[in-house]
Amino acid sequence: MAYSTVVVMGVSGVGKTTVARPLAERLGVPFAEADDFHSPANIAKMSAGTPLTDEDRQPWLEAIGGWLRERRADGDGAVVTCSALRRRYRDTLRAEAGGDVFFVHLTGSPALVGERIGQRTDHFMPPALLDSQLATLEPLEEDELGTALDVHPGPDRLVEAALAALRADG
């Protein structure tokens, strides 16, 4: 597979971590959770129900892209979760990573995603921010490497579909 640098993207609650962790295992590359790259100020804002601004996101995106670049330099590749909701955010990730990045965009109905968010007890992202994320979301464009997968089939099938997409595009 040519693309071992993968971003599993989508709004909060689609199951990015649930898919990304086993995908990284199957690819034999390191995994990271983008939430771990947020500053304490960003986490406080989101916890309070305040959407992040582009200015808030920029250092976060640069840090994620830098981590991808380091994994690429190590020869490993990597899988990271990241909402990557806008094209310009994905452009930043690609630029900072220093090469091609394959995006796996997980999608689901707002009702399903909202239900999932409402069931989480261990995350700082409140359900109230889902609408702002959905309004911000810009799906992958034709010239972007990646695939969109509906989350309804479940994690095992999504990992298999992501692997198949990587093989097809690689």
TrEMBL record:
InterPro entries linked to this entry: P-loop_NTPase, Therm_gnt_kin
An example Gene Ontology molecular-function term: gluconokinase activity
Catalysed reactions listed for this entry: D-gluconate + ATP = 6-phospho-D-gluconate + ADP + H(+)
EC number per UniProt: 2.7.1.12
Source superkingdom: Bacteria
The entry's keywords: ATP-binding, Kinase, Nucleotide-binding, Transferase
Pathway(s) the chain acts in: Carbohydrate acid metabolism
Entry's family note: Belongs to the gluconokinase GntK/GntV family.
NCBIfam families to which the protein is assigned, alphabetical: therm_gnt_kin (TIGR01313)
UniProt name for this protein: Gluconokinase
